[in-house]
Write a structure and sequence with these properties.
The protein is an alpha/beta fold. The chain has a domain of about 120 residues: Rossmann fold, CATH 3.40.50. About 30% of the residues lie in helices and about 30% in strands. It has five helices and eleven strands. The strands form three sheets. A six-stranded mixed beta sheet has the order 1-2-4-3-6-7, sandwiched between helices. It has a three-stranded mixed beta sheet with strand order 5-10-11. The radius of gyration is 16 Å and the shape is globular. The termini are far apart.
Length: about 180
Amino acid sequence: MMKKLCFQNNSDGFYGTYYPNPKGAKHAVIGLFGDDPNDFMAKCGAKWLHKNGVNVLCMSPDVKNYSHVNYPLERIETAIQWLKSHGNQKIGIMGMSTAGMDSLAAASYFPDITLTFGLTASDFIWQGFEQGEKDGCKEWPVPHASTLSWQGKPLAYMPFVYEHPVYYQKIQEETKG
């Protein structure tokens, strides 16, 4: 079992789990993997990064939450400050899909991030979207919202072509195709 330290938005300024490298390390990677920093994908990412000699801080918006609506980049900034204050000399960031876009955006805001991986990332900010259950849809765009925010304001974003519920219907059509 991996050693870990958990963080909460309310008390710590970000939601995440720190997985220190069992062999010791002076560098860290912020991992934006999956729905929760304690789920299977996050743990697999942390183990892989441990093999590559770094500490890992997995982050997500909140507990089992894959919605992306005005996620404050300040949370990543707070995480960077925590990592630096706990002996991490260099910091990278790695995200997949929507979180890959988040990693690219964060790297453009914070010069302390010196290594960036955006796996299947878009090079623009998306409109905000929710996941859950609404009118038989598992995902839907949020009007007038971005996926990311900075200083309390949504970042400029590319709006989705379709609105709810056609948005999800198109996803279903493409998935079946």
